[in-house]
Amino acid sequence: MAAQAERRWLLLSPALLILTFAASGPLLIVLVYSFLEAGDYGGVKWVFTTDAWFNVVAERDFFDETIKIADAHVSIFWRSVKLSLMTAVAAFIIGFPTAYFIATRAEKSRDLWMLLIIIPFWTNLLIRTFAVMEIIRNEGVINTLLIKFGIIEAPIQILFTEFAIMLGMVYVYLPLMVLPIYASMERLDFTLVEAAYDLYGTRMRVLRRVIFPLVKPGVIAGSILVFVPSLGAYVTPRVLGGGKQLMLGNLIELQFGQGRNWPLGAALSITLLAIVMIALMFYVRVARLEEPQHGQ
Amino acid sequence: MPVSTRQFDIRKQPGFTLIAVACFLLLYLPIILLVVYSFNAGKSIAIWEGFSLQWYESAWQNKAIQDAAIRSLILACCASAIATVAAVMAALATTRTAAFKGSSFVFAIINQPLMVPEIVTAVALLLFFAIIKVATGYTGMWYLIIAHSAFCIPFAYMPIRARLQGMDFSLEQAGADLYGKPSRVFWRITFPQLWPGILAGAMLAFVISLDDVVITEFVKSAGQDTLPTYMLGQLRRIVTPEVNAISTVLLGISVLLVAGFFFLSKIRK
Asked: Of the candidates A104, A232, A239, which has its C-beta nearest B235's C-beta?
């Protein structure tokens, strides 16, 4: 029906127009800029070059033109990947038992427990990061208490370390781990667990061989959902890393501030986007795999 | 392990409850401390010196904070209104018509803000709007309003679509069969059932806009600070409990709206 199709696209047009104008479309500009030459004071010159992409991982010596690996960039890439992986692992260690705990509550109270997990997630990310900062600061609660009880004499420097960034990211992204694991766990058939105990399984063995394989899709989904925003994190490393421990998001911002190499910033953005898209494709595959398994 | 099988709880895993309780405590402790110390009479964020509202007073009287607060509210109102209208129309198009060619493309566009890292979108908008600013000379609020509307659309879209999918389509079809104009069918039949979804979507969009830092930080022109970007800017100076006071107010708004969203989505269809 042509009339129906026409009406559908008419209804879709405002959303598609706004999103193309202020979300998807501008991504193409980033791609174009990554192949341009950097202007002298920020901005770009309209000359085609692959310099920016070259500069993502390598640098040319200013004097003798030798090529070497850009250590600064590689170490920031490595830190971003390392901290994001560690964040996902830590979130799993805390999130898995929590999801299990909620899934084994009485059916009526489960929603309320989940609401408790969800509420912090919908509150301001910057404020939650501030809250973590205030606790781990040198004048914060942890150091003040430790000094008061004579355990330490001088405050421990926690803020502005890699550990602080990881702690902050675990704190802000933890709900993203609990939600999908809980979704798998809620449909877990406990008669299988009972059967395993009847066959003399120990608690550890039942957990590892029966429960874990059944909720594995949720665990993978949760890990990706935590890993992806951690990799692109900007606010948390800026606040808790204090400009000393940069992550990819901060490196990108730097190219539009003091560094003023817009094409390099554009190339780094596309690199980040590519990594995230690959991770999300895995996620979509896992989500598809999960459905028929539980489809009874 | 207990001898009697009757006492043996198959759902129990040792240590799990402990970790879960610790998890809930850790999730709320920092926020609670932040709120508590916003009422501290002293400047400290660790030593309690008595109850006082002085930080709320000084925040209230701070001109920069006033301006940022008003700007945040106007921005969130405009963006959530635009996003909600666009989302309702898009949700009607994707649930009330037969499956169509290009639907996966449409979903990819609508969900794009959920997938692309915020910093990448922020950079893209910075570059794009820089071109427009040079070409037109306009540096007003509309850049922020359009940018916020865009990333709010998927958040408004989700609850509205979920509600539409759970609604009985036959009533609307009957309305159309009786020669009701599409707009009349919408206002008389669809809207009275759909409004909790629309309100929930608008509330979610409002919270998302109010809380945004990264995209606002990159898109704003000089003198267009919102509350979150103002707070981020304060980081370079000494943080006073004034920031805690603003945080507490923002937290309060978010928690109220999210709790409201939760109960709205429980309203029977």
From this structure: A239
Q: Is B48 helix (H, G, I), strand (E, B) or coil?
A: coil
Q: Does A126 contact B213 at a Cβ distance shorter than 8 Å?
A: yes
State the complex-level ipTM: 0.89
Asked whether the CA dihedral B146, B148, B153, B154 is positive or negative, the reply is: positive
Closest partner residue to A139 among B34, B46, B251, by Cβ?
A: B46
Q: Which residues of B touch A276 (CB under 8 A)?
A: 115-117
* Among B17, B120, B230, the residue to mutate for chain A (most A Cβ within 10 A): B120
The ranges assigned to domains in chain B are 14-52, 55-264
> How many A-B residue pairs are in contact by the CB < 8 A criterion?
254
Summarised one tens digit per residue, pLDDT across range B214-247 is: 999 999 998 899 999 999 988 776 667 888 899 9
Minimum CA–CA partner of A131 in chain B: B30
For A221-256, what is each residue's pLDDT tens digit? Answer: 999 999 999 999 999 999 999 888 899 999 999 998
Question: pLDDT-derived band of residue A295, with 50, 70 and 90 as boundaries?
Answer: very low
Residue numbers in B near A190 (CB within 8 A): 10-11
CATH (residue range B55-264): 1.10.3720.10
Q: Do A94 and B115 touch (CB under 8 A)?
A: no
pTM for the full predicted model: 0.90
- Alpha-carbon Rg for chain A, nearest whole angstrom, is 24
What superfamily does domain A72-293 belong to in CATH? Answer: MetI-like (1.10.3720.10)
**Chosen from B127, B149, B231 to mutate, greatest number of chain A CBs within 10 A:** B127
